[in-house]
Specification:
The protein is an all-alpha fold and about 220 residues long. The chain has a single domain, classed as Arp2/3 complex 21 kDa subunit ARPC3 (Orthogonal Bundle). The chain is about 60% helix and about 0% strand. The chain is built from seven helices and two strands. Strand 1 and strand 2 form a beta hairpin. Helix 4 packs antiparallel against helix 5 and helix 5 crosses helix 6. The chain is globular.
Length: about 220
């Protein structure tokens, strides 16, 4: 397949070669050979790659939107506890930075324009937790870049992915919360960080289970 890399497992990656970086999980989708002339096969390969990438991006968007609906409202903070962060981390690691940026970009743009798929069916941007959604985008790109360098292959490194990604979400969410609510840094940390520390640890553990397990499953199929 033009523009791809074939690994020892006989799987051809989709997209441009990455000589200085490794693949993410989405790059290892099998590219089936099709009959026809070399030129026809080349055009077909490009079209298939574009279609697969579009499907991956949309799937990532829907995954984050779906997990964002799994939430626990907390009476002492305007920020709900949801699984949206987990979705952003998994999408970043599985799809890589470029596809993840597209997935989360669609999620944000559509939500701002009125699609009610933010946590609790919210849309728009004028609410206290919107900064965390901006953090989803940034975290997914950073996590995707880390996954390109193999940080999702082991349990401990995957825990690092989860913790770093969560910290990035807070780096965007807390300042927005301060401005939106007029709270001090200490108050914002109490409202927007402290209630979620345990949940973030659980999410990091889930990331540390899912990502290395996916790579191990791939290795067994080689």
């Amino acid at each position: 397949m033009p523009g791809g890399i074939t690994y020892g497992c006989g799987v051809t990656t989709i997209g441009a070669p990455l000589p200085a970086r490794g693949p993410v999980l989405a790059d290892l989708l099998p590219a089936a050979a099709r009959p026809g002339s070399p030129r026809t096969r080349a055009r077909s390969a490009v079209a298939r790659a574009a279609a697969v990438n579009a499907a991956l991006v949309l799937t990532g968007t829907l995954l984050v939107a779906g997990l964002s609906q799994v939430l626990v409202p907390l009476p002492f903070t305007p920020v709900p506890l949801s699984l949206g962060t987990l979705g952003a981390l998994l999408v970043g690691a599985a799809l890589g930075p470029a596809r993840a940026a597209a997935s989360l970009g669609i999620y944000l743009a559509a939500g701002i324009l009125g699609v009610g798929w933010f946590a609790g069916g919210a849309s728009g941007w004028a609410f206290a937790s919107f900064g965390y959604l901006l953090g989803f985008l940034a975290a997914s790109v950073v996590v995707g870049a880390m996954a390109r360098r193999g940080a999702d292959r082991s349990v401990w490194r995957s825990i690092g992915i989860g913790l770093i990604g969560g910290a990035i979400v807070y780096a965007f969410g807390v300042p927005w919360l301060m401005v939106f609510t007029g709270s001090s840094l200490g108050e914002a940390l109490v409202m927007g960080v402290a209630p979620f520390v345990l949940g973030d640890a659980i999410k990091a553990a889930i990331v540390a289970i899912v990502l290395p397990s996916a790579w191990a499953l791939l290795a067994r199929t080689r």
